[in-house]
Amino acid sequence: MTHLLPLADDPAPERADAARNRQAILAAALHLVETRGVACVTMDTVASEAGVGKGTLFRRFESREGLMAAVLNESETAWQASVISGPPPLGPGAPAMERLHAFGHSRLRANLVHADLIAAAGAPGTRSVAALSFANMHVRYLLGELGVTGDLLMLATAVLAPLEMIVLEQQVNREQISLERIEAGWDDLVRRIVGC
Amino acid sequence: MTHLLPLADDPAPERADAARNRQAILAAALHLVETRGVACVTMDTVASEAGVGKGTLFRRFESREGLMAAVLNESETAWQASVISGPPPLGPGAPAMERLHAFGHSRLRANLVHADLIAAAGAPGTRSVAALSFANMHVRYLLGELGVTGDLLMLATAVLAPLEMIVLEQQVNREQISLERIEAGWDDLVRRIVGC
DNA sequence: GGTCGAAACGGACCGCGGTCCGCTTCTATT
DNA sequence: AATAGAAGCGGACCGCGGTCCGTTTCGACC
Description:
- Chains A, B: Residues 19-79 form the HTH tetR-type domain.
- Two copies of one chain form a homodimer.
- By secondary structure, chain A is mainly alpha-helical.
- Chain A folds into two domains: 1-61, Homeodomain-like (Arc Repressor Mutant, subunit A, Orthogonal Bundle), CATH 1.10.10.60; 64-194.
- In chain A, 69% of the residues lie in helices and 0% in strands.
- The interface between A and B is medium-sized, with 35 and 35 residues.
């Protein structure tokens, strides 16, 4: 075998025009989301802005949720990168406890900033599974570093659940709770789960 | 003043035909949800089944989410009643810790049973605010009984967050985690939050 | 019972998400 | 360069949630 043979690719490597269209659609969607806000972005608009037919959008991204998830993914990826290899205390280099707190605060803010996009991206499962379980995996790792014993998967879920948009939405918009109080409450939660 | 005078009613007491229609709509919706499943229930169907125009549905229930929330509310009310005045350990009479665990398990199951209806009822805020904060208030009360100190509102939120449908959905459908493990994980969480 | 304003009604209508299928474009092969 | 057929394309079309407004019904008051 030579280096010209395709090495363990996907069985169907994307065709050139398809790739071009995917890029065009993604760029158009991102632009429209930024300028008009998520709510005002219709599939027809994205299609015409990208200069493709509507069918193409749905073949590439499955649904509106899928497209929004793809847009969201752009910033999510950057955020993940800063968790994995950015400067401390979010990135590696700081003590695990500091990293965990930085993680929570950062995630909290990221969720609030992209609130409407996250809502439009819909239930997890539409977003890539890998992206979704990243947070859980990272928290599990940090809890391990802190010497926490028990069902770490469950504990990580418990730590992350209060940061979910649906919960934050209720607290911020409905109950008018300040960001500081939410952060403090989350810090307390972490302390109780880790400590003792 | 006599007993014939309306006592501190809403300013606009519902007209007779309006009340009749509300009942008919709710009954039709409930029936259709039970027989065909939430996903197959369209507003047109409910309207014709109830023998009213579509406009009436939307005037009474605001949106599809609102209608589904109203349907969901029927069973939620019953559940709340059993928490407030049902038999122990869920109702009053048992030690606070037992009640709390019973509460969590009961809520967990209720959420899973009505999963699709809850999803269709959409974000909180569509459902009545009272109904939504009931769980939080109850948990806060139980935590107080247990002598927990701190920001009880935040702690109650932390206790309830892992029971939210969006979290459970991920665990049950995506990660295939058993109900027992979820319950055990939640029990552990409660112990850590209360204890120490 | 008759009158009148307000409230409720209902179905035609709209926009959007999503599908379908005949046509076009790409690329592997010779 | 020619070819063939798979992959991609696009826009007409559909169903559903939601709105609008001319018409009907209610019930308070005379």
